């Protein structure tokens, strides 16, 4: 009788954990760019290491023994101070969960995820890229779409290998697995650590961008108020400070759908206003030459707007028919290319040389305030997602990685966050504020992030991994494409990073003098 009761309790708890994974993994796989509806979220229940590390950075519960305490509520993460399970145990538990009739997502649902990931609010900086790049900027929007689509496909190809019977089977689950396989056997964990560092940088920089854009939008919405952009950033950070106390994102997830809908409405409003001024479009202002000093920054902006590779392994693993992945990537990136190109061109033609870093700042004051307030609300509600993900990755890597942890566990035996752990969370929020105050330049920060982590995760690493793992089976044109993408991506990354860094240093000095 006791054995039967324990078995039932274990099944119920496993079901709750599985349901929690489905909801939260779906949320973070979109990093705040997509609503976490039940139909879409269930597809991300797959126990994918990368999805947990980058998109949410969460260590989902796996019931390890009969004495484990039951989960509370719909979304709850137990921390017993013992660190994560060994890799072998984690994979076995994931396999056990995945075999319980887990729902899969269709190609359309997968495409919805990708579309929202590459059509976020950061497309508002694309017209500024056209300002410094002209027609070459438009070409790069198309070129980046083609390259990111290709590298997404070859990244998925790195997940598969032939078995002894000549069948193609999936032997890896995540970006981290691919990176570790490329560095094995000499450095079996080096690749995963590099990918994790890139993830953390991108997550923290995304948080900084949300603070910067909030301060910028509020300052330009109410220019007559005696409040500076720095002060607005401080106010925004004060609103965000409770993020340090987050244990889960159940409350925040309720606003995800509203944020996504609001963003699409804002894009439509901007395009509608631009079309209303079609007679005044300045076609002669679109240049065939580039601003050598500022155009590399535009490259980073464009690349950053296409970053989605990091969660593609999880997405493909949860599709009902993985063979449709290539087709899904084609139509999502074609749609993104068309929409981004039209949005950037139409907006630039409307304001020409007056185009600002965030295009909504160019709108008339009558509608600017309303549109910007919606954008600020979206930015503030989106901030907890990358922040919580970054915190979880840092905590697990530095404080909860078993014997390999650099510091003592920041959670007590009862699962509560220790005071110094809370202090570190608050320090991370304050750090994003300081960066936003001293470098309040949306385009520069976006360009730096795109050149550093965006180009690395979308261009350099996929092509390098593809060559390393599958070079014996590649056709000559695949080898040529991979080498070309690696070289071109490396040049663009270095050039964009240097120019963005120079601009940030100059801006930092200017703000320090003021």
From TrEMBL:
Give the protein's biological function: Antiporter that exchanges vesicular protons for cytosolic 4-aminobutanoate or to a lesser extend glycine, thus allowing their secretion from nerve terminals. The transport is equally dependent on the chemical and electrical components of the proton gradient. May also transport beta-alanine. Acidification of GABAergic synaptic vesicles is a prerequisite for 4-aminobutanoate uptake.
Question: In terms of domain of life, where is this protein from?
Answer: Eukaryota
Q: What is this protein called?
A: Vesicular inhibitory amino acid transporter
MF terms (GO), sorted A to Z: gamma-aminobutyric acid:proton antiporter activity; glycine transmembrane transporter activity; L-amino acid transmembrane transporter activity
* UniProt KW keywords: Cell projection, Cytoplasmic vesicle, Membrane, Neurotransmitter transport, Synapse, Transmembrane, Transmembrane helix, Transport
What's the family?
Belongs to the amino acid/polyamine transporter 2 family.
| Gene that this sequence comes from | Slc32a1_1
Return the GO cellular component terms, semicolon-separated. Answer: cytoplasmic vesicle membrane; inhibitory synapse; presynapse; vacuolar membrane
Key word Transferase present in the record? Answer: no
The organism is Orthonyx spaldingii (Chowchilla)
Catalysed reactions, semicolon-separated: beta-alanine(out) + n H(+)(in) = beta-alanine(in) + n H(+)(out); 4-aminobutanoate(out) + n H(+)(in) = 4-aminobutanoate(in) + n H(+)(out); glycine(out) + n H(+)(in) = glycine(in) + n H(+)(out)
GO terms classed as biological process: gamma-aminobutyric acid import; neurotransmitter transport
The residues covered by the Amino acid transporter transmembrane domain are 104-500
Q: Give the record's membrane topology.
A: Multi-pass membrane protein
| Main subcellular localisation | membrane
User: Which residue spans traverse the membrane?
Assistant: 136-160, 200-219, 255-275, 295-315, 327-349, 369-394, 422-439, 445-467, 479-498
Q: Which Pfam families match?
A: Aa_trans
Q: Where in the cell is it found?
A: Cytoplasmic vesicle membrane; Presynapse
